[in-house]
Every structure is written in structure tokens, then in C-alpha cells.
Amino acid sequence: MAFLHDSIREVLPDLSDVAKDMLVETLLALGVETYSDLQYITEADLLSALRPIQARKAVAAWKVKCQDTTQDSNSSFSIQEGASSLPSVSPGPSSSSRSLSPISTSSSASRSPDVDWADTFDIPWKKFPEELIQSLERGKRPSPQKRREMVRIVVREMMQKSSDISKRHSTIVAKKIVATYPKSLQDVIEGDIIGSGYHSLVKQLQNRIENAKRSTTPKSRKRKLHAESDTDEIPAEKRAPIQDTYGCIKWEMKFMPLGETAESQQQSRDKLKSLSKQNAPNQDVVKQLTRSTFYIQRKEVNNGKEIKYLLEDWPFLFDEIGMAVHFEELTGVSLKETFVRNLDLKGERLLNYLKTVAVNKSKRLVQSFTNIQLMRREHTGPSGDLLEMVLLLLSYFDEKEDVMFTYVEDTCLAEEVQMDQVPLTPTIVVCGQSCFSAKRWMLSVDRMIVQPSITSFIPALCLMFGSFYVFNIHYPVVLASTLEFLQRCFFSINPERGTKVENTSKSRLHVNPRVLTLIQDLSDHEWCS
């Protein structure tokens, strides 16, 4: 309903898009169908979507606007006749709320009988501690302790409304809270919103609800509730397409680009193969040809062409230049540029958190940190902090380093790598005893060395990560959290739903909860560089 968006924009021009959408949903749930219906809205009706002052502004403005429209309209008689039966209304917002609330409620019930309690749930702002309100109003992130206290208060109010609270209810409530104070509560790292921005609050609400129910719910019922609220299952036959297209904006092109023919695509393919044999091909030409043949590249990848075939016919797909072009067309993200920018913004904060906070919570992480420090003393080189960050991330999530890295002798050639010991998924082959001592890297995909000589770690990591998307490869379960964290925080690919993780019995359709926990802890982590 366009008139609702216009009417909101007129009275609250600075309202965020998320808050506007929520207000529209609230008004529709109340039964608003025409502009004149807005004159019957009260402050109390809007408190589930707006702050009190915002609600008062909107109600006052709509009443004046509707009165002006009524006086000027030729059809005003019928509206005035309907309004004459209503109780008299004084200008003040509190009296407006008292006099019209019963009528608004009955209108809502008659027009929208299926309205859920969560849609009209009032966030108990007045019950929040003063310190928390001060943080929220000033746009500051509340301390973890105050955030947990907020969650306890909200859940207590929710459970008074219903004893059967689903994940959908928690999502609606979390969305309202975050929309009201996005600067303080959104899932964000250095300005980048992670997923929808409110998944970590949904998770906290769900966990609190489960804890509150634990003492009163029979065990069989508890397991059922946990399964319904914590995961969303999809049929097995539908998982592959979801995982293949996850994070992509142009996964499959239905039509060949204008001006292109099958012959011109083949000619460009042949030119690229010829350029790949040159020692220093013109990079601009390679980029242009790779971009112009994106259509046929996607067709062949999506039709399941083997890596061996793709390496022969599209050698630049496995090169830093060609993969960057294809990845950007596919996802809308600049592969290396995005990673480097986010590394500058977030890398130091993440490494500091892992080394000073997370390390005190895990014996495993302590051991990994100690080993890494020993290796760094023996071998100091470029990208040391990045290597340490990735290795500590793997340890933090308790995931398999040997699935991301395979180690060979520093003089080892591509044909000498024992491929039966290398994972099928994209893997960085380290030429050296450790990541810190290596001067050369290789990339393996489908147990084939597709890039035999990479001179630094950043392009090696970008090529490895990009391969999952370019070649429709799913994240292995044993690297799922590490790869999703890198995906969201460093490569800026933030789908709200879906998964890139290979087939499992239960495939999560939202942000990985372990990744959410780290994101939330990082958001709360304050430090001075």
C-alpha cells in the first residue's frame, strides 16, 4: 500500500527503512485500508513499532491531515457521519489513547482475525534499567550484562502473552527492538551489517525462552520445541540448488549478452586460451574477454563440467585476474579488494579479541596460540597477522586446519604433490614447514593443482574462497563456521537465508549460531589499538 509509505514519510521523514516497514505491517494488522482510517489510530496502537514521541507525532499529524481532507472532500459527509458516533477526542495523546483504543482494537479484530500476538506486542521499554535506556538513546552498544538483562525482561513479557513461543515470534520481537535502536543493537562489525542485523538477538531470545521453559516442560516436548525453533529443514532434493546459488546475484544467465553470438563467444574463449600462454598478457584485455564470456562460463560450470576440462578451456578462471572478474559478476563483490578493505577495518580487532579474550576461555585455543607464537618467532614474514588470525579462527571454532591447508616441502613441484592426501574441496597447498615460513603457495581444487605458484597468502586465500562460489562447491562441514565467518565479515557476502554448507541431515537456513556468537562478542569487545 503506497499511501501508507507516503503518509509515514510525511510525518517521520528520518525513520529508518526497517522501522518504516514494521510500521506499515502494524498499520495493516490494525485494519488500516484507506488514508482516512489513519484518524482512528491511537498512540497505544503504534508503541509496538515506534518510540512514544514518534507515535505522538504521527497520530497528531494524521488527525490534522484527515480533518483537512474531510472538510475539503465532496464525499466527506459519510465519513463525518461515521465519526460522529465516536466519543469526543481531546487533542492530547493520552486522552486520544483512552477514548479510541477500544474502537481501534475491535476494528483490528474484525478486519484481521489472524493477527498474531507478536505483531502487536509492546516492547516493555519502561521496564528497562535506566543505564540501558541511556545507552540505547545515545546510540551506544549496551554492555553484555545489560543486553542479557534486556533479553530477560522482554522474554518475561512475551511469556505472559503466550506459553507457546515460536522462533517466528522471537524474530518479530527482535526485529522491532533492533529497528528502534539499530546503532546500539544491530549485528554489525565496523559498519557492516551481518545478515539481517537481528539474528543474534533472535538467538538470545530463543535461548532465554528455552532456559525459562526447562523446569516446567516435559523432556519429549522440549526436544520438539528445540527442533522447531532452532533449525529449519528443507527437503534433500532442494538443498543443492540453494547451496549453489547462495550468495549469488547472477548464478545463471538465461540469455546471451546483446551483440554476442555462439561464434563470438568461441572466438573470445580462444583468445583467452592464447593469452594464457603469454608471460605477461594484457590484464585489461583479459578482464574484458573474461567478462564478455561470463555467460558461457556459467553455463559450463552449472552443467557440471569437470575441473580438468575448465582448467583447459578457461585457464584464467583459476588465475587471480580471471577469478576476480567472474566472482564479481557472480556475487557483486570485488574479491580481493573487499577482503583487503575489511581486513584493514576488522582484522586487528578480531586478532586482539582472539588473543586477549577468547584465549582465556578455551584450553584448545591456548595451545594453538602458544604453538603459533613459537612458529612466528622462528619465521617472521609478510601476512603474519593474517595467518595468525586464520589459524586462531580455525582453533576457536574447533575446525580442521588440514582441510584448509596441506603442507609440502618448500621445493615441491605441482606434479610432485601426493594428491591422494589432499581434500577434494578447494585447499591451499603450503610450500614449507609452516604457513609462516612458506614463500610459495598452490591452489588445489578437486585434487588437482590448478594454480601452481602463488607468491603471497592473501591471493592464495582469496582464490581458495572464490573457488567455492565460482565452481559451485559447498563448504565442508568441518570448515563451515570458519568459512562462513570469513564470508560474512571479510568478503561481505551476507544472505539472510540459505546455506553454503554441504549436505547434512539438518541444513540451517539462517546465520550459523556459532558465527553469530563471535560476531556479537566482537561487537561488544572494546579495546584501544
Automatic annotation (TrEMBL):
Residues 84-112 have a biased composition (Low complexity). Keywords: Membrane, Transmembrane, Transmembrane helix. Residues 72-83 have a biased composition (Polar residues). Residues 72-114, 209-239, 262-281 are annotated as: Disordered. The chain crosses the membrane at residues 457-478. This is Uncharacterized protein. It comes from Cirrhinus molitorella.
